[in-house]
Amino acid sequence: MEGLFCGAGFSRTIPNMPASASARQLEHSACPWFRKPAVQQVVREEMRQAAPELEGAFGRRGLLVRGCQPLPGELQGHRLHTLHDTWLGPEGLEGEFRADESRLPVCSASMSLVFSLHALECARDPAGLVAECARTLEPDGTMLVLALNPFSPFHLRWARQGLQAFSGAQVSRMLRSAGLEVHACRPVGVWWRARDALADTRTPRLPMLRSSNLLLARRREHGLTPLRLRRRPVPLGASASPG
Length: 243
Fold this sequence. Notes:
Elements: E1 11-12, H1 21-26, H2 31-35, H3 37-49, H4 51-55, E2 58-66, E3 79-89, E4 92-95, E5 97-98, E6 111-117, H5 126-136, E7 137-148, H6 155-158, H7 168-177, E8 180-188, H8 196-202, E9 212-219
Parallel strand pairs: 2-3, 2-6, 6-7
Antiparallel strand pairs: 1-5, 3-4, 7-9, 8-9
């Protein structure tokens, strides 16, 4: 842990510390919606479908950034030694540390994986949050973004919850602007409700109508391009003769 968290203006907290009554009054307007059992089932189904990408995540440390506290605080299937957990609260990031969301108190190039779990929808500055998450990634590190799909019928369930909507193309632009290479963007989740997941396996509906998009991006450190050596022609001297 030592050397991982750096910078000023943050404090360490006890993980899974219950929120106070005053904090609940100031929490994001979508938090009560994310607490609903039906919504929890949908999020769990989305994360189950994200398992193939998580199984490819391995390394020493990872960071889970949740949009709010009611969202699941565990990732199934990853192969990381340590997973740090934080979420967006009324005054910034909470969880293992408290800090402004635009200044993650995490050293650069220290994370093998960053997973954004419906965090962009709740963030004050989504592009800034993506840039900060990208900064913490080590070379070849992976960032996964799970974001609600504004083109899904499921959008009608959260349209008035104070959540921001981003298409897969918009999230891809944020990731590229942060210096990451986007490798995949695929729809995950359900069409309308949690029990639709089983029905979709039997009679698949249009995939672009699923509840969320899952994007996978990586940090690539491009090295210097080696110069190509050219042979210089050597003129024949006056005393030299061919052959």
